[in-house]
Amino acid sequence: MLQRPKASALCIFVAMTISLTGITQPIQIQFVDQDNQPVEFAVVADTSVKVTPETVSKGASKGAGVMDQIDMQFSPMVIAITQGEQVRFPNSDNIRHHVYSFSKAKRFETKLYANQPEAPVLFDESGIVVLGCNIHDSMIGYIFVSPWQHYGISDDNGMVTLTSGTQPKTLAYWHPWSLTPNQIMTTEVKQWPSNGPVVISLILNKPKPTPAIKTFKRRYGS
Amino acid sequence: MSLRHRIVLFFLSLLIVSTIATIGSVLLATNNSVKTQAQSKLVVGKNVFEQLLFERGNQLLNAATVLVADFGFKDAITSNDGATIKSALVNNQERINADLMLLITLEGNIISSDQQSKLDKALLKELLILAQTQNGTSGIVMINEDIYQFVMLPVKAPVTLAWTLIATRIDKDFAQQLKALTNLDVVFKAHDKKYKTVIVSTIESLSTKDNLDNNEARLLDAVLNDHNDFLTLPVELADSDFFNINAYLNTSLAESYLLFYPLKVQIIAIASITLILSIISAFFIARKITKPIIKLADITKKISSGEYGEKIIDDHSSYETSKLSEHFNTMQKEIALREERLMFLAYNDSLTGVANRSFLIKQLSDSITFKPKEELSIIRIYIDNFKETNDTFGYEIGDNLLIAFAKVIISYVDNIEKVARINSAEFAIILHGINENTITEKLIHLQTLLQHPLFVDNLKLKNHIIMGVSFYPQQGDEAEQLLRRSEIALNHAKDLKLEYALYQDGQDERHLRQIDLINDLKIALETNQLNIHYQAKVDLDKQRVSQAEALLRWTHEKYGFVSPEEFIQLAERTGLMPKLTHWVLDQVFKQANTWKNKGLNITIAVNLSAYDLVSDFPNKIESLLHEQQLSPNDIMLEITESAVMNNPDIAIQVLHKLKKIGFKLSIDDYGTGYSSLSQLKNMPIDELKIDKSFVLNLENDENDLAIVKSTIELAHNIGLNVVAEGVETLEAYGILKNWGCNKLQGYYISRPIDANSFESWIETYTLPQVTP
């Protein structure tokens, strides 16, 4: 699913020389992990333009994001929305789900339902919202509620393209498998590359499918 | 030790040894079994224990797993409200019956159900690392001063929001539950640097957590280390940098031993009862074995005391005893028969069939013992002329005579058992109810009866009998004594030529004195108690003391002076005479030799007994003479008249021989015997010695004067010298000298004195002056 980029040696430093050209065009950011592999579902945002209360209320009217549930998985795993947007949680499975979140940004639950809950959920606080299904523990989904206007999620090549038309100094980024999954990190881009994406390296801790302990350990210690 | 005791002792020893061995091996096996059982119990118990602990942990885990998945719980702990979270913890802790519940946030903050419980930071770190790698952890830990089973699980919503640690305390109650299920005492011992040692135990005295006193420490040590009566199996529960936790499962062997106590008691009881029964059986068997032996021993004892009547009844207890009994009975019969035969031989005279001496004594004893009041007469009957009859008609006739004689006695006494033959021609009878006053008639009757002629082998034989009688109880109460006294009486009758004599009191004492003297005379001869005195003879022709008569003297230590007449007679009767004569001759010849050497011209006269006049005597005396280098002239031999008359033929032959050797011969005690002058004429004698009975009172008795005077004349006429002895007065001396008596001897001249005295006497002696 993931394609390895040919320009594996790209880095922020190279990108900076490109920005000196002063060409204004969509900016590209690529996420790689500690093994230099492209990272999907990384969220990156241009921190230069914050969401205003007007845009929040405007966004609310704009429509809803969608977090589907397919084959007992949130689909996609990560979505990013602008603060003040609503998200719909359609259920494509033929079983019921009980979607909830205990995240600070948004605590909610939609009791067992099929097809479509009664109403979309409004996310008026920015932050990371971790979604779960109360009856299917393996289902984990994330909603990045962005306080910024311009953001994007990396595709399976780790690539994000932002079309704000600016080259922000500071980028905010986040990935659910980072070592600090509850924190949105920022990085300063001193010089944007004239050509090619800004590459952000992530150290990921991909959750292994470790089963919960099933039996009591007979002996404690080494 | 008796056979029975031996048998019993043997079995007893055997049984005791085997019983001890049995009990010992049972006890050993029991003890081994106790240990083995205890060990297997421990092993089983350990499995159960571990399983229980594991199950309890699993229960906790399951409950905790359910709990952390609970939506409401998640809701509560994400509420951000400390009080709410804590109350949720407390509530859920109670819900799953846990003792401690901690919530550890991802930031490392700890929210506890129990404000007191503080978790060590380092330990928490270790726990978190363990939990993160395995998506949760569990085990046994020491928190503060308690031991816990814990689980640590993530709270996921759906990512890990926090960690929760849920624990149940391992406390005394739980230990007791374990004990109830494992049947083992359980001691949990946790140790860490901070809290030192924590002990949770089912053993009452070890339940304290505080410092143990010495006894408890010792007990703990014993429990933990298998000491004493404890068998312990340790189970390691935790071993980390922070603490060690071990469980010790143990069982008290004492309790296990106690379980076997009834068995041991039973075994010992059974063994004891077996032992006792066996001892009793051993006694009975031993008795059964020894009973016939004891019975036989009893019967043997009876047999030895002469009872043969008891028959051994075979009880068929065993073949051996049956055989033994049978042989015993046979033996008993045989012994009885043989004894009867022996008895007959022992108590009967084989010739006449009457009793013998032994049986008579028995009869007498029995009579005295069983009828002590009854008077008895013991009569000895001696056939005086039996020897002549025997000599005349031969032994066969003699024997037949005795048989016939015995029949006559039996017919008189009318009881064969009261008649006994004592010696060849001597019988004895016992008459009952006869005493000294009534005996005479009986004796006269017997005399008549027994002297009646008997026809034996067509010969008419007349017997002359002499009888001696003793009486019971007057003359003794012992059979031997009575029989001896009857013999003394008989001898008395013989000596005095009486028809019969009754025993006189004192005769026995004389008899006993004689026996004493006979016995002592032998000793006296050997120990030189005898000595010889010399009595001078004056030779009137030569007017000097020319001779001395050697006279034997015996001073008995009990009886004092014993007269030569008495003891010489005894010596003659007991065959001591040759010895005595030899001794005397030896002494006298030595003395003669001495005197001869000293120049003393004395002929010593020695008295010979009738018993010396035997054919070999002359040779003996001759050799003795030569030994002392004497000539026959130095010795004169004096022979009594009666000695010669006893057996004149041999005596005269011997005298001739002596004469031939050269001895001068003198007839002693002349006038007391019955010697005829014609016989004297034939004897080769030189001298007559007139008996002192004629001389002692010579001057006053006309008969004596006549006898002595005529004897001197007569002797002189046939060429014999005459010696007078018993000269005690000058008158007698004078008379005899005037009548031409050749030699004089008597107290007037000298008493008999010992050799030394004689020597001094003769030096000073002067012959009396007698006017014719």
Task: Characterise this structure.
The complex is a heterodimer of chains A (222) and B (772). Chain A folds into 2 domains: 1-50 and 150-205, Immunoglobulin-like, CATH 2.60.40.1120; 52-146, Immunoglobulin-like (Sandwich). Chain A is 8% helix and 41% strand. Chain A has 2 helices and 18 strands. In chain A, the strands form 5 sheets. In chain A, strands 6-12-11-8-9 form a 5-stranded mixed sheet, with no helix packed on it. Chain A has a 4-stranded antiparallel sheet with strand order 13-2-15-16, with no helix packed on it. Chain A starts with 11 loop residues before the first helix and ends with a strand. With 772 residues, chain B is α+β, with helices and mostly antiparallel strands. Helices cover 53% and strands 22% of the residues of chain B. Chain B has 24 helices and 26 strands. Chain B starts with a helix and ends in an 8-residue tail after the last helix. Chain A binds chain B through residues 100, 102, 104, 107, 130-134, 137-140, 176, 181-182, 207, 210-222, and chain B through 50, 53-54, 56-58, 60-61, 65, 69, 71, 74-75, 78, 80, 106, 134-141, 149, 151, 153-154, 156-159, 161, 236-240, 245.
Structure in a nutshell:
Chain A is mainly β. Chain A has helices spanning 12-19, 53-62; strands at residues 27-32, 43-50, 64-66, 68-70, 73-75, 78-82, 85-88, 97-102, 107-113, 121-123, 127-133, 136-146, 148-153, 159-162, 170-174, 185-188, 198-201, 220-221. The two termini of chain B are 101 Å apart.
